[in-house]
Each structure stands twice: as C-alpha cells, then as structure tokens.
Amino acid sequence: AQSVTQPDIHITVSEGASLELRCNYSYGATPYLFWYVQSPGQGLQLLLKYFSGDTLVQGIKGFEAEFKRSQSSFNLRKPSVHWSDAAEYFCAVEGGSYIPTFGRGTSLIVHP
Amino acid sequence: SQTIHQWPATLVQPVGSPLSLECTVEGTSNPNLYWYRQAAGRGLQLLFYSVGIGQISSEVPQNLSASRPQDRQFILSSKKLLLSDSGFYLCAWASGQGEAFFGQGTRLTVV
C-alpha cells in the first residue's frame, strides 16, 4: 500500500529565509506525487505535481520540488519565504489506486 | 474549466440530529469523488470514494454514509450525529492521474 510521511509537524522560518519541507513516500514503483497548500478554513490548492520526466518541478507561488527516487523523497523548496506563505502543506501520492494518499501535513510559521 | 462546489461552509448541529453535506462538480464527467475529514493536526482521513454513480467505497466504518445519485453529485450523510463527528469535511474530485481538486470545506460542530 502507498503511504506518505511528512516528518515535520511544524516548521518555523524567518521571512526571506529559504524553506525545505520534507516528504517521503512508500510505493513499489514511481507514483504520481503532489504538494498542496491549505490556508486556515479553506480547501487544499495544488502547488505542483510530478508525473514523470525532469525530477525538478516548478510550481505556483515560487515553489519547486525535487523527486529523488533513491531516497523515495519529494521535498518542497522555496528560496525566499514570504509572510503570506504561512499555511499547512500536504504531500500526496497516487499510485494507480484512484485514491490520493496524503501526509499528515506540515504547518509553516513565518516570523517577520 | 472544472469547478467544485461544497456547502454549507459552516454547520452547527445538535447530537442525534441528521446530516447532509452536498458536493457538486462542474466541467468534467465521470469524476472520481472523495469525502475527507480533517481533524486538527491529523491530516486528511479518507472517508468515502466513488468511481461512478451508485458506487461507494467506505474506508472507515463509522456513523456516516455517502451517496452518489448523479454523476457529478456526492452527498455525505448521517442519521444521528455524534460529538465525535465534529470536524472539517472536504469534498474532492480527482483526475485520472490522481491530481485532486478540493471544495472549500464544511466546518461541522456537533453540540
């Protein structure tokens, strides 16, 4: 069965600092991989996705993620965080079961 | 373009009362549909999913049920709410490659 681990429940960064949110997945082959962002009281919005090809994918709002097959990881990065990036971030995987599986989420706190 | 509507946005219901949350999708046909519940700090818990009209799969046995009376309509119901049913409920539909599109969610408080 597919699974997703986001080891960091909370991450605190200063505005302007770089960010990396970790995501590890478990699946027998290469799954489809996603990062979503959720603002308080809202639904989830897709940031970026990886299906195949170039392992570095660009998303909206200046985010990028790198797929590393050897580490079963799909970490999310941003070179300079803005206060508006404070939100909950979810990594997700889909491996052909028609059911996206989500990690428990990482809460990003941005200090001015 | 595809859109997903979920309502109501907030709901306060007494224990033992019934529940009906509705979700509709526009701009796509035969979508895979999902109901998730989100508890604080616990991520998304898949409750039900549907790959077609009348086809419902339950992931977690509980006090809730789901129905899909039309291709783009997905309903979450309960006959008698429990306090433990409180939470944030999210409806979603997914493309063939698993990319999910979410509604705005319903905050349910059972009192």
Write up what this structure looks like:
- The complex is a heterodimer of chains A (about 110) and B (about 110).
- Chain A has about 110 residues and is mostly beta strands.
- Chain A is built from no helices and twelve strands.
- The model of chain A has no long low-confidence stretch (mean pLDDT about 95).
- Chain B is mostly beta strands and about 110 residues long.
- Chain B contains no helices and eleven strands.
- In chain B, a hairpin with a 2-residue loop joins β7 (about 65-70) and β8 (about 75-80).
- The interface between A and B is medium-sized, with 25 and 25 residues.
Structural class by secondary-structure content of chain A: mainly beta
Structural class of chain B: mainly beta
Report the average pLDDT across residues of chain A. Answer: 93
Strand fraction of chain B? over 45%
Envelope shape of chain B: globular
* Largest β-sheet summary of chain B: 7 strands, mixed
- Low confidence ranges of chain B: none
Multimerization state: heterodimer
β-strand percent of chain A reads over 45%
The overall pLDDT average of chain B reads 92
SSE topology string of chain B: EEEEEEEEEEE
**Largest interface by Cβ-Cβ < 8 Å:** A-B, 25 and 25 residues
Q: What's this, in brief?
A:
The complex is a heterodimer of chains A (112) and B (111). Chain A is mainly β.
Describe the secondary-structure layout.
The complex is a heterodimer of chains A (112) and B (111).
Chain A: E1 3-5, E2 10-14, E3 19-21, E4 24-26, E5 32-38, E6 44-50, E7 56-58, E8 64-68, E9 73-78, E10 87-94, E11 101-102, E12 106-111
Parallel strand pairs in A: 2-12
Antiparallel strand pairs in A: 1-4, 3-9, 5-6, 5-10, 7-8, 8-9, 10-11, 10-12
Chain B: E1 3-7, E2 10-13, E3 19-26, E4 32-38, E5 44-52, E6 55-58, E7 65-70, E8 73-78, E9 87-94, E10 100-102, E11 106-110
Parallel strand pairs in B: 2-11
Antiparallel strand pairs in B: 1-3, 3-8, 4-5, 4-9, 5-6, 7-8, 9-10, 9-11
